[in-house]
Design brief:
Layout: E1 11-19, H1 27-31, E2 39-43, E3 46-55, E4 60-68, H2 70-76, H3 97-106, H4 108-111, H5 119-122, E5 126-136, H6 142-147, E6 153-160, E7 170-182, H7 184-199, H8 209-218, H9 228-235, H10 240-253, H11 268-283, E8 287-291, H12 297-302, E9 310-315, H13 318-329, H14 333-336, E10 339-343, E11 358-362, H15 373-384, E12 388-394, H16 419-433, E13 435-442, E14 453-460
Keywords: Magnesium, Metal-binding, Methyltransferase, RNA-binding, RNA-mediated gene silencing, S-adenosyl-L-methionine, Transferase
Catalytic activity: small RNA 3'-end nucleotide + S-adenosyl-L-methionine = small RNA 3'-end 2'-O-methylnucleotide + S-adenosyl-L-homocysteine + H(+)
Protein name: Small RNA 2'-O-methyltransferase
Length: about 475
């Protein structure tokens, strides 16, 4: 280990990255840090060191060690809302925001995914192991909730307050180990965002620029993460205006309705997915179609449902499906076996989609030109003919509750229905196609204008 300068009462914080992709020493090219050299970098919290405990053709491990001076750090931030007003705290001892900042400082080029020496390698998933021996964690199941949907196998073991006194219980830390096959740049960006989220604390002032940092680091994975609301809130220290801005921009990245306001302090898109999942559980659906899956937001939550054994997502957009495919590549093989995606139009029949327990069209029908709706009805209710069909669509009557909204909620909407119009359409479809239909609100049910989203649940009569 490299010698460090004399620093008063320093405390080391450690993270290691390991790959077994041969030649494993190419990890040095990706990180822009030569395996034969130990390097030092200055950060606001103290010096950071990069060195390689092992570097050979079969396996290579890069270690990032941050030496924190808690007294100097406390004095530097005196009077600020940083959680470091007194130096006796866990910031200098555990891998939270201090390590995340060091990660960005030391591996900035790698986080951007650039590597002129190995460009194909930088763009490809590689086998990776991440070890954080001491990660502050407020919530025992939180590591799995944060890293699991990103394709990591998560091993988070609680750390006892004192092994000699087991009756004292566990400390609010975990020994965190992540295993997966993922692009190095993606792994670094995820750690940069999620280490402070595990801790639910930051050692520095959070301003408006933190929204941009969050979007830069999480823009290609956070929009569809099932815990994006929690991640945004914790990353931005629960500052409401910043959290709302971040969620609106993430919704835009997801291709959703960017003008929607949060419902019950949560984005309407999240409430909508939660409602749909609840109905699928009620119906006992095990084989589910997501028709018009877009970037895969619902797919990510369906795959986390242990009772759902088969999932097929379809969309007409190759770009959307490419993003879903990248996510699928990061999933464990056993999980990946349960889910498939394919390019398909909802106005052209696909007999291979027949026989499923349920099909979901979440915010889809309003993107179809009205003359093409009969073709969609035939494809979904006659050709695929699942036991149940769930359809959500905006309630245009509720638009008056969105400040500044004029016209439709999304530029690609061909129409938006009132509650009466939606019911008339759904009743006619049910009568003509051999289904019954029931209606539910999604989001707060305003006594004057109804809910922001309306849901129809069709059930095949013979089912």
């Amino acid at each position: 280990m490299p010698a460090s300068p004399t620093v008063r009462d320093t405390r080391p914080v450690l993270l290691t990255l390991t790959t077994t992709r041969a030649p494993a020493t190419d990890l040095g090219y990706l990180l822009f840090k030569h395996p034969d050299k130990a390097q030092r970098f200055d950060t606001a919290a103290g010096p950071a060191f990069v060195f390689y405990p092992r570097a050979d053709e079969q396996e290579c491990t890069a270690a990032l060690l941050l030496e924190v001076d808690p007294v100097a750090l406390s004095r530097a931030h005196r009077g600020q809302d940083t959680g470091l007003g007194h130096y006796v705290n866990d910031g200098p001892y555990a891998a939270g925001s201090l390590l995340a900042v060091a990660l960005s400082r030391v591996f900035k080029t790698a986080m951007n995914g650039r590597c002129e020496a190995r460009p194909e390698l930088a763009a490809s998933p590689i086998p990776l192991r991440v070890h954080v021996p001491s990660a502050p964690c407020k919530g025992k199941d939180l590591p799995e909730r944060l890293f699991g949907p990103l394709g990591w196998q998560v091993d988070a073991r609680t750390i006892p307050l004192d092994p000699a006194f087991p009756e004292w219980g566990d400390a609010p830390y975990v020994d965190l180990r992540l295993t997966g096959e993922i692009r190095l740049a993606d792994a670094l960006r995820q750690l940069y965002v999620l280490l402070p989220v595990l801790d639910d604390a930051k050692h520095y002032w959070v301003g408006a620029d933190e929204v941009d940092k969050l979007l830069r680091a999480g823009g290609d994975w956070l929009a569809a993460h099932p815990e994006r609301d929690l991640i945004s809130a914790r990353y931005l220290k629960h500052r409401g205006a910043y959290v709302r801005t971040a969620l609106e921009r993430l919704t835009e990245l997801e291709g959703g309705e960017v003008r929607e306001e949060p419902a019950e302090n949560r984005p309407l898109a999240a409430v909508r997915r939660e409602t749909v999942l609840g109905v699928l559980r009620e119906l006992g659906a095990r084989r589910v179609l997501d028709l018009g899956c877009g970037g895969g937001a619902l797919l990510r939550e369906l795959v986390a449902e242990p009772t759902v054994t088969e999932i097929v997502g379809t969309d007409v957009s190759p770009r959307a499906l490419a993003g879903v495919a990248r996510w699928l590549e990061r999933l464990p093989e056993r999980t990946r076996e349960r889910i498939a995606v394919r390019q398909s139009s909802l106005t052209y029949g696909d007999p291979s989609l027949a026989g499923f327990d349920a099909a979901v069209l979440m915010e889809v029908v309003e993107h179809v030109d009205p003359p093409r709706l009969p073709a969609l009805e035939r494809v979904v209710f006659d050709v695929a003919r699942p036991a149940h069909v769930l359809v959500t669509t905006p309630n245009i009557e509720h638009n008056v509750r969105f400040p500044g909204l004029t016209g439709l909620r999304h530029p690609d909407h061909r129409f938006e229905w009132t509650r009466a119009q939606f019911r008339a359409w759904a009743d006619a479809v049910a009568d003509h196609r051999g289904y019954t239909v029931a209606f539910r609100p999604v989001g707060p049910d305003d006594p004057e204008v109804g809910p922001p989203t309306q849901l129809a649940v069709f059930s095949r009569k013979e089912a």
